[in-house]
Design brief:
By secondary structure, the protein is of the alpha+beta class. The protein is built from eleven helices and eight strands. The chain has two domains: about 180 residues, Roll (Endonuclease I-creI), CATH 3.10.28.10; about 80 residues, no CATH class. A four-stranded antiparallel sheet has the order 1-2-4-3. A four-stranded antiparallel sheet has the order 5-6-8-7. Helix 8 crosses helix 11 and helix 10 crosses helix 11. The N and C termini lie far apart (about 70 Å).
């Protein structure tokens, strides 16, 4: 299973204990997969997402004491016998009092462009429940081992804006982008995704994501250190190579015995210890000299070599 499926599998099992939170979550299923029959007299949920219909089934029983049946409406295509059929699931209410009980509780008459009434979402706990249900309907998440990306694919800009504002109440920044005929609310920050998983109650997935984040951060830190060390080593080798060239040029065209004593000693030590660092070179001198003193003497030798070349 993908990471996204694991998250959905976890939050599908999460049932709020408060009735108002259950109603807020049901509002997500009504807004996204609920339909009034064109001829009237019934209301149904219709989706290929079995987890959504299972949750609707559970909430109808726990919240409204309505006992329904989830039907598999899959029609196998005889022309594509070798192709796996896509399952379509459906729950239908036909009793008028049951339909009224559900639709009035979620304020169905106020739903426009798949948005829900703000009165259903005034409490933090209800917004958590609604986001949880909406993720089952509209959400997906990339494999965090590769990248951080969580999104809700909305059917209208109004719906997307409602999600952005709702997520923002938890101090999480979400953005909207248009993709074909949909409006996608997305989050790309690992820490923000962790916070949203916590809000939805997906705690096992949260811990798995945190473990992956730690591994990625450690790898990134190690890579940075290795790159830094490699750059420093390369810089040291290049500097030592240039210093050797300058000292050899002075030796061959000027003579080291003509140099001041402190520079002659520095030049001889560098020639003897080609790969040594500035600190190590300073320790070879008598008396020992610090890194800044060694650097000053080597720079002076380089300047003399440049003057000689010119």
């Amino acid at each position: 299973m993908s990471f996204s499926q694991n998250v959905k599998g976890e939050i599908e099992k999460h049932i709020s204990t408060s009735r108002h939170c259950q109603i807020a979550e049901m509002a997500a299923y009504v807004a996204n997969f609920g339909h009034e029959a064109p001829e009237g007299g019934s209301f149904f949920w219709h989706s290929e997402k079995e987890a959504v219909l299972r949750k609707v089934f559970t909430l109808l029983e726990k919240t409204y004491n309505i006992y329904s049946v989830m039907e598999d409406m899959t029609v196998k295509d005889s022309k594509n016998k070798g192709k796996k059929a896509e399952h379509i699931y459906r729950i239908t209410l036909t009793e008028e009092n049951e339909i009224r009980k559900v639709l009035q509780s979620v304020r169905f008459s106020e739903m426009k462009e798949k948005t829900v009434s703000a009165l259903l979402l005034k409490n933090d706990c209800c917004r958590r429940a609604f986001l949880r249900g909406s993720f089952l309907c509209l959400g997906s998440m990339s494999d965090p081992a590769k990248s951080y990306h969580m999104e809700y694919v909305c059917g209208s800009r109004m719906q997307a804006q409602q999600f952005v504002e709702m997520i923002g109440t938890f101090r999480i920044e979400a953005k909207i982008t248009e993709r074909k005929h949909h409006f996608v609310v997305y989050i790309k920050e690992g820490e923000a995704i962790v916070d949203l998983l916590n809000i939805m109650g997906a705690h096992i997935s949260l811990m798995n994501l945190e473990n992956l984040r730690i591994v990625k951060e450690v790898r990134s830190s190690v890579n940075r250190r290795v790159n830094c060390e490699t750059a420093n080593i390369s810089k040291t080798i290049n500097a030592a190579s240039r210093q050797m060239e300058d000292i050899i040029y002075l030796r061959d065209h000027y003579g080291l015995n003509r140099l001041p004593e402190h520079l002659r000693e520095m030049a001889e030590v560098r020639l003897e210890h080609e790969d040594a660092s500035l600190k190590e070179l300073g320790e070879y001198l008598d008396p020992p000299v610090g890194k800044s003193g060694v650097n000053h003497r080597l720079r002076k030798l380089t300047e003399m070599a440049e003057e000689l070349r010119n």
